[in-house]
Write a structure and sequence with these properties.
Length: 140
């Protein structure tokens, strides 16, 4: 593990690691202000390094979960599996996943209605109303 630091990271990983370090620094500042404690530069760097390494582990685990399911795409179920040891995190991810699914369904419905209206087609509710109108006029 110690030798791993000798190899330079690819540019995109350097930028990602810098972004993690910056974000950890911001979070530590918030905690400092809120809890009246101080973080040394070394402790911020250590927290950043641990966070970055843990994210690498998470990414590899997610990849393996998808591969095990014979998929090439990581999906929500993989993320839930990763979060299974933290009840609060699993609950949060499940809730957000359901919200996204619901939002996506609403967007699809809106697109269907727009494309149907643009083509002059009727929605199922409009079709039903038209059939009822036809039946009423046939009875008269």
């Amino acid at each position: 593990e110690a030798g791993a630091h000798c190899l330079p990271l690819p540019r995109f990983l350097q930028r990602l690691q810098a972004a993690v370090h910056y974000t950890v620094g911001c979070l530590c500042q918030e905690v400092e202000e809120d809890k009246d404690v101080r973080f040394s530069k070394q402790s911020v760097a250590a927290i950043s390094e641990i966070t970055f390494r843990q994210c690498e582990i998470f990414a590899k685990d997610l990849e393996m979960f998808a591969r095990h399911a014979k998929r090439t795409t990581v999906n929500t179920e993989d993320v839930k599996l990763l979060a299974r040891r933290s009840n609060s995190l699993l609950k949060y991810i499940t809730q957000k996943s359901e919200e996204l699914a619901s939002s996506n369904m609403e967007q699809k419905e809106k697109k269907k209605k727009k494309s149907s209206a643009a083509k002059g087609e009727r929605t199922p509710g409009e079709q039903e109303a038209a059939v009822t109108e036809n039946e009423d006029s046939n009875m008269a």
